[in-house]
Amino acid sequence: MSRSRDKDLRRPVGRAIHHYGMIDDGDRIAIGLSGGKDSLTLLWTLQERLARIPIAYSLVAIYVDLGFDSSPAPLIEQYCRKMGYPLHVEHTNFGVLGHSEENRENPCFSVPGSEENDFLNWHINMAAISLLSATTRTTSLKPFF
User: Which CATH number fits domain 3-133: 3.30.9.10, 3.30.390.50, 3.40.50.620, 3.40.50.300?
Assistant: First the structure.
């Protein structure tokens, strides 16, 4: 990334974090990754800020694998390993179930209870304070837990 583009990205992110009080010292932040440029850029930006700011927080990247054969999970794992980002991949069949024959009438299917509970329990155990998703178009991010 060029130096001017880097600054163009870092400044508004820093201002938004400060203005809205999004991150505090000691926070553990989970970043939901899609594999797209928005979520990967958010992860990179928050990691890069740690070297320049007076507070400390920790990051963990999360990717929910929907169970499709063409999952980007291996590429996301490779990228996070190369960059040194901690990553948790939750393997599910949610996408496959959502597009199955038995789900044609109601595409807003219910996730099976045990898998959903396992996923929520993992988040609670991680004590993630904020779940940030670059695909969410809101300016106010609140803790989910």
Answer: 3.40.50.620
Nearest-angstrom CA–CA distance, 16 and 110: 35
| DSSP H or E segment with residue 61 | strand 58-65
The Cα 73–Cα 63 span in angstroms is: 7
Cβ burial, residue 30 (10 Å; 0-12/13-18/19+): buried
**Residue ranges per domain, the chain?**
3-133
The pLDDT tens digits of the residues spanning 119-145 come to: 555 554 554 444 444 434 344 444 443
